[in-house]
Amino acid sequence: MKKVIFYSFIALYSLCLVSCSFSVKGEGETGEKEIKISNINEVEAQGNYRLIYLYDNTNPRIIVETYKNLLDNLKIKTSGSKLSISESKKVEGTDLYNVYIYGPQIETFDVTDSINVDINSQLRVSQLNINLSKSAKLLASNVVVDVLKVDLSGKAKASIQGTGNKLILTASDESDFTSPFLELSEANVNISNVATAELYVKSKLLGKITNNSRLSIIGNPSKDIKTIDLAELKFINSDSIRK
């Protein structure tokens, strides 16, 4: 019995050592690191940091702002027009961990883990693709697109302002797409599990909502949408939102 307890203790201790060796926390002095990149139109990001996009078509670059012991923790590479960012070690409990992307118009954001994306410049593209999973979040205040494709899963959240001709939305699990200030002509939705969405649609609403999902619509579009299981579809008076 003593041997069983002893070996159990050793196993737990070893597990703790392995776990701790694969995580790091920012400490000491802060600093910045600049990395020159080629022109990109796609961002793939994994990890736990804040990602800020700023338009600059003359000097594409990345600036990492964090504690000095974390400056080299990010693995940053480009392949063609795609930028990939990930972490060498998992970072927890760090209050300053920012990655600034300066570049031309981005057409695809593929983001996972606990990254917070801020799009601080106008995005004006024909098609914008946003894929968020796990606990990723995205905020955009000025988007002008023809087609917007959004795919959310896990506890991902996105909120977008601007205008678009067509939205194709897939939301599952506990994800949320609350964008009452995104003016859309048409929306095609597939919302499931307990996901939620709030949209401003002027002309046409298509798709389906299932399980215990909820969809709130601002506007009075024509409707061809299926409500299945305990899903809830609600229409909101636009005057109450846009005062």
From TrEMBL:
Residues 41-221 form the Putative auto-transporter adhesin head GIN domain. Keywords: Signal. Residues 1-26 form the signal peptide. It comes from the Bacteria. This is Putative auto-transporter adhesin head GIN domain-containing protein. It comes from Apibacter muscae.
